[in-house]
Amino acid sequence: MDYVLVHGTTQSPRGWDRLAAALDARGHRAVPVDLLAGGADLDAEEYADLVAGQVAAATAEGPDGGDGGADGPAVVVHSGAGALAAAVAARLEASRVVWLAAFVPDTVGGRSLLDEMQVSAAQMFNTEWTQLAAPPTEDPVTAGYFLFHDGDLATLRWGLESVRLFQPARVFAQKPRPLPESAESTYLLPMRDRTLRPHWMRATAEVRLGVKAVEVDAGHCPHVSAPEEVAGIIAG
């Protein structure tokens, strides 16, 4: 199967390298995409077109991914990229969406991410995260504390090399669209997350996606600290 890996707001595509290797070892094809390749001021549909172009180029150059071919790819979204999940899944005709410590849009109430944050930030995010004066990508100590605190020293150093800021303001202000009915959801919930609150992620997975979250003993970037475990869950 093909796994399209969509990075969040604090990492570049390099942050997927460990998970991509684990998926490849299982006979799948991982396709990391770069959302900044088209600029940082696109809407969700424009980012979906950008992703589709990168996926088409990557899959044209390499062999087919495992037993994939008949079904659409799986789209893996991390963190804030959850706001793009529906648009990307629809554009790629995805068979599955994997939400990795990801924001799940409020398709029930029709609120954008910014609208929801105005009234529910305390329920959604760790207090320390909301009190940051600057993006965590500007300081390696801050990035390490929030993103890579659950790994060893080598993992911390590796993770810091993947840090990069991505702020899709137009996407975060957009009203959410529903997921395609054909796309199933899997939600991976890292129980030691220091950004999104685990209890909020669990509740939104159940209410907005209709699934029970799969819990992992990790921080906000389990694809960095526990790639084999994540690959085993999403490809199992």
UniProtKB/TrEMBL annotation:
Which Pfam families does the entry link to? Abhydrolase_6 (PF12697)
Q: Which domain of life is it from?
A: Bacteria
Q: Name the SUPFAM superfamilies on file.
A: alpha/beta-Hydrolases
InterPro entries, per this entry? AB_hydrolase_1, AB_hydrolase_fold, Sec-Metab_Biosynth_Hydrolase
Regions that span the bilayer? none
A molecular function GO annotation: catalytic activity
Coiled-coil spans are none
Q: Which Gene3D superfamilies match?
A: alpha/beta hydrolase
AB hydrolase-1 domain ranges (all copies) = 4-231
Q: Which PANTHER family match?
A: AB HYDROLASE-1 DOMAIN-CONTAINING PROTEIN-RELATED, ESTERASE_LIPASE_THIOESTERASE DOMAIN-CONTAINING PROTEIN
Protein's UniProt name = Pimeloyl-ACP methyl ester carboxylesterase
Q: Which organism is it from?
A: Streptomonospora salina
Taxonomic placement: Bacteria, Bacillati, Actinomycetota, Actinomycetes, Streptosporangiales
